[in-house]
Amino acid sequence: MQDFTPQLKDLRSRLGDAEGYLRIADLRARQPQLETEMGRPDLWDDQDRARAVQRELAAVNEDLELFSDLTTLIDDADTLVELASEEGDDSLEGEITDSVIELESQFHDLELRSLFTGEYDEGDAVCLIQSGEGGTDAQDWAEMLLRMYSRWAERRGLDIELASVSPGTEAGMSSAEFEVRGRYAYGLLQSERGVHRLVRMSPFNKDGKRQTAFAALQVVPFIEDASGEVEIDEKDLRIDTYRSSGAGGQHVNVTDSAVRITHLPTGLVTSCQNERSQHQNKDRAMQMLAAKLVDLERQKRQDELAAISGENKSVGFGSQIRSYVLAPYQMVKDLRTEYEDGDVDGVLDGDIDSFMESWLQLQRATRSDEADA
User: Fold this and answer.
1) Average confidence (pLDDT) over 227-245
2) CATH code matching the domain that covers 125-367, chosen among 2.30.30.100, 3.40.50.1220, 3.30.70.1660, 3.40.50.2300
3) Is the model's pLDDT at 249 over the cut of 60?
4) The dihedral of CA 240, 246, 249, 250: what is its sign?
């Protein structure tokens, strides 16, 4: 029978690492505190605070349960190896192999968390897709990207909510703003920030020629309450109302309830059209604007304003982070990490985790190099 000692030793080592970056000791101390707070009868008098406690407790329970499950699975694999060795039973080799493969897969997914070091990485994300150069193809490409991220969120069990859509002139859409909610939504989606390039035989070109189109994704962390981090002066805002259009729920196309807010000093724009009333749409748009302003200030402090705002960067040739080539060959390639995938259909159907992971690994390597310099 195969000697599983090296694999199991490696898994034990990775479990020890996980105990560190998951902060298991801290979580075990924090869990009863949160449970006590959740049991307070007056907790829901402050709904924002209650939701925050609820989210934190769910995350703590999730991590502790995961660590416990991994510990149990490794112990079980160890027991099977000992049993097979003592009884000389080679028939257990297949079961042990399957257990080790499953454990390695789970550790691979778990170790992504060690790459999340930002203040907002664990939270939700506010996203904006905008079509760029390429005319109708670019607007169609923007809609394809929205579908790709929607399918990706569905694969990961994240919630996605469309806040507003501006339809294209002939097809697709000019822009769409949406939120992705769930643990590590922002940490993962920040890797997608930038210009995406599509090369294909255009369905909108009567000559059937190859066409290049561009669309950009902007991503900022959603902050539930930004009042302590940013002040917004009503005099700095232009608030427009309009009739909702496109996707957005049962109340669209009924009243002029959609709201678009422009922050005049920065030029940031946010909008919402899928809530039940103009007041609710305004509140949601203000939340998204506050999130963008907080992130803008954070990026300013890091001298990376251009990377977050994107307003002054051309969404066209020479600015892309990733190319999606459908013709004359099929390939998706990230120009920052050199990672590529020939399964274009799979990528466009939301299978983009490998691209995200390669970017996160690159960021960690870059930080490590800078620290050593």
Assistant:
1) 81
2) 3.30.70.1660
3) no
4) positive
